[in-house]
Each structure stands twice: as structure tokens, then as C-alpha cells.
Amino acid sequence: MGNYIFFLIILFIIVSGVISVLMIVLYNQIIQKEESVNNAFAEIKNYYKRKLDLINDIIEELQKYTGYERETLEQIVGARTAAIEKLNKLSSSIEQNTSSELSESDKKLSANLGNLLSIVINYPELKANSNFIMLQEQLEISENQIAQARSIYNDEVRIFNSYIQSFPQVCIAYILETKQKSYFEYDSEKIE
Fold first, then answer.
1. For 117-157, what is each residue's pLDDT tens digit?
2. Are 36 and 145 in contact (CB under 8 A)?
3. Which of 25, 37, 113, 181 has the fewest CB atoms within 10 Å, counting from its CB?
4. Is the peptide bond before 124 cis (omega within 30 degrees of 0)?
5. Residues whose CB is less than 8 angstroms from the CB of residue 51 and which lie 6 or more positions away in sequence, other chains included
6. pLDDT tens column, 24-68
7. What's the rounded Cα separation, in Å, for the pair 36 and 109?
8. Where along the chain do its domains lie?
9. Rounded CA gap, 192 and 188, in Å?
10. What is each CA distance from 117 to 105, 133, 180, in whole angstroms?
11. What count of Cα atoms within 13 Å lies in the side-chain half-sphere of residue 25?
12. CATH classification number, 30-176, choose in 1.20.1440.20, 2.40.70.10, 3.40.630.10, 1.10.10.10
């Protein structure tokens, strides 16, 4: 009888140890995947900030040309300021409605910038300016980097959300009160 109780105690200790190790491993994996999502979102913010800096450089270049469309410049400056405010308010990850707010801000900024760049056609000396051409090229590269970063972020969110919904991770996620992450949805339609 004494050996049987000793065996049950040893079995209980082993099972408890295995469960504890499993919980620690699952916890660490959840944290690691969540950090991957946060890192991907930080990349979006970095590229978006770069885009805003390029827009500022374009505005400065345009202001060198007197008589330029003052109203259009003011619209872009206003849209850029609004975009910077949205960007500064963002936390380390996307919460509900954050991606739609950032997307809306970016669409307005892009629409105003598109209007500006279409007016540039009327200024041949500006179109020929090598600095302006370089800024336009960098802006296009920045747009592509943002699109790629959004795609990477959404992949990381999909991996994270799938992971925390799987068993037994769902139990650990419930204990940690870990919520699913929102996808970065971006409507690429142009604003008229």
C-alpha cells in the first residue's frame, strides 16, 4: 500500500511538472507571436513616418517656386498634420478602428498629394528639377514599403489569431486575457 501511494505521488509530480512546462512553453510562444505582430505594426508606423517626411520635403521643394498653388499646398499640409496626429496617437498595436482611422487619414493625404502632383505638369521647370524627381521616386518606394509592411503585419496577425484560437493555447490565452488582433484593412480606392 505504501508503494502505491508513493507511486501516485511521483506520478502526480511528473504530470504536474509536464503540465507546468507545457504552460510555460505555450505562454512564451504566445508572447513571442504577439511581439511579432507588434514589431510588424511598428514597421508600418516607421514607413508611414518616412512617407510623411518625404511629403514635407516635397512641400518645401514646391514652395521654392513662387506663385505655386497655395490652396493645394495648404490642403496637403493640413492632411499631413492630421496624419501625423493619428500616427502619434497609435499604440504599439492596432486596436479596433485604428486601422480604419489611419487608412482614412492616408487616403485623404494621398488624394491631396495626387492633386498636387497632377498640377506639377503646369510647371516644366519643377518637373525637370532633379531633387523633385528624386523625392517623387522615394515617395513611390515609400508607398510600396508601406503596402508590403501592411501585408507582413496582416500575415503576423493571422498567425497570432490562429495560434491563440487553437487548443491548448486558447486556455492560456484565456487566462492571460489575450485578445485577437485586428487586421490592417486598407481600401485602396481613390477619394475623388
1. 776 776 666 666 788 888 888 988 998 998 999 999 999 99
2. no
3. 25
4. no
5. 139, 142, 143, 146
6. 999 999 999 999 998 998 898 899 889 888 888 887 777 776 555
7. 28
8. 30-176
9. 12
10. 18, 11, 40
11. 7
12. 1.20.1440.20
User: Residue 171 burial by CB count (10 A; 0-12/13-18/19+): exposed, middle or buried?
Assistant: exposed
In the chain, the amino acid numbered 146 is I
Residue owning grid cell 487619414: 105
